[in-house]
Structure prediction request, 227 residues.
Amino acid sequence: METTMNAGRPASPAPAPPHGAGPSRSVPPAARISMALTGALLAGVLTSFGQALPGLSTVSNSAGPWFAVAVVLCMVAGVRLGRPTLAAAMVLGVVLLELMHVGYWATTNLRGYPDVLSITNFWVLMGIPAGVLAGAVAVAVRSPDVRWRGAALGATAAVLVGEGIRALLQVADTTGPVAWVVEIAVGIAVLVTAVATARTPVGRVVALGTGVLGTVGVLGAFLLLGG
Prediction:
């Protein structure tokens, strides 16, 4: 009887999956890399147009935002921890920054402003060490080791603060100081965040030391090489 009665009942619906759960649809590595490369070209295109806008012209002429974009795009590409991945990320960082130059060069010429893309150009040459650093930062910032994360954020802060100080010393008379002061403030905020989130005394020392010494190094490179 019980079997017969149970057989006549409608089947109970399957329990709904928890909110947010569902089939995993991770983006394929090739698609991630394609998005990063496309994003680099687009950043170069937007830089050219940004130079024509009074409120963005100074920012578009600065290297710090390009470095930050390269780091973000390396992360979009899915760089991970590990020695082979670190080398690949460094190469990718260089490729991304040089693609930004290509996008800027092509767009500027199409807009009617002659521009030459040369391997001896200061910024093209600086794209090599800056790209290597951007790739390394993108990998290190994901490390479970607070020392590597602190060093990554400290290096990012150093690029922003170092360039900002150099600009205040050399080009603020023609560009105005506001954009550079903002860049320095953002860099200091990144460094404070690195120190505050380090969680260990060693991590804080690494973050602060990388930020301060890195700032001196970036500033010295700019002043020495005359970019």
